Amino acid sequence: MIDGKTLHPLGGGRTLAAMSTPSPAMSPATAHEATSNLPELLERRRAGFSLEAPFYTDRDVFRADMTGIFGTYWLFAASIAEIPEPGDYVTVDYGPYSLIVLRTDEGGVSVLHNVCRHRGARLLPETQGTVGNIVCGYHSWTYAADGELLHAATAPDEKFDPKCFSLKKAHTRVVAGLIFVCLAPEPPTDFDDVIPLIEPYLAPHDIARTKVAYQQTIVEEGNWKLVMENNRECYHCVGHPELACSLFPTWGLTEGMIPPHLEEVWERNQAAERALQERCDRYGLHWEVLEELDTRIAGFRISRESLDGAGESFSETGRRLSKKLLGDLRDFRLGRCSLHLQPNSWFHFLSDHIVTFAVYPLDEGRTMVRTTWLVADDAVEGTDYDIDELTNVWKQTNLQDKAFVELCQLGAESPVYEQGPYMKSEYQVEAFINWYTQRMREHLGVVPAA
């Protein structure tokens, strides 16, 4: 089931007028209007503080992000549960890039640029579907699932070589059923080192034996970095009443950071963590925190963490939302395996279902967020799970996050916006911004100030 519609990238954006670079003595209003000279912005990035306004509002910065981040590093695209049969496909857009993620007849995954090699027409405009060969709707050039050009009507002359006009491909990796793509000519190899670290956490949930129960697609009127920043902290989680029933509001806090009104919750959380770790050890499941969010190119964080209440799932009582266990799991009370990956995804792997979150930038002020709920492939809607109950917590949380992001975007566009400090519990936001600025400095050849 699909909730939402496809929006095309690069529409309705705003570009700041070029002016002189601000000095430290400039007022916030003057600095806000200053040029988005990205190397200078990166060079003066203030550690521990939010980014300057052009990072969130300027079209030139957005275009640089699309090249330096989304055109360079490994990105989450979809799961194999979204393309279960040969010929099934989804299309994903990252700013100006559009990709076809297609299940092949052999059961593999082919990722092709969604651009005809004749005159550049968009080949598959729908967000999902099933195809045999890929036929361009403009002049009927026809391609195989691997991108090979099979037919071009009335080819120009005998010198025309179809082999020279195959669809362009993106690099692909499937990790425990999650499909990642890289648009760079040569993808970073660091991701190869991360895969064996995260795969053992995810494999027991067996995405290959799941199906899509529901998919929600929403557009947030905010820059993609604001969407990611919002996800990387729980300082705002008081604004998520449905989620707070099962997710401990002390997430992100450590000993010595607990406010008095959360001390009882902290103790309950610690007891639940100890019980979960004992249960995981019994079943041979990984639970340790592995965290390298800004210390490597393929920044990530993975752990298995307890949930409140019954500790089984994201529900009002913490109890399971599907009667079917995933994979070969033997217990419902396994909390959540949480995975964060830079730059565009996060995931929750539970015993009864999986939730994937993918961020697709549209332009400097709009971002599409796609949330997909996966259940066991033999689970029956209405018998084993209720679709409204299954999706309620994260549908509501996503809409609340959308509102928070849009408030931040409005603030970043104000002439009086200036950078504010991150709190200790927002360390993952700082790590995301560190990761982003490091990657962009490398892309532009900027040497950080001493």
Automatic annotation (TrEMBL):
Residues 74-181 form the Rieske domain. GO terms for molecular function: 2 iron, 2 sulfur cluster binding; iron ion binding; monooxygenase activity; oxidoreductase activity, acting on paired donors, with incorporation or reduction of molecular oxygen. Its cofactor is Fe cation. It holds the Pfam family Rieske. SUPFAM superfamilies: Bet v1-like, ISP domain. Keywords: 2Fe-2S, Iron, Iron-sulfur, Metal-binding, Oxidoreductase. Residues 11-34 are annotated as: Disordered. This is (Fe-S)-binding protein. It comes from Nocardioides baekrokdamisoli.
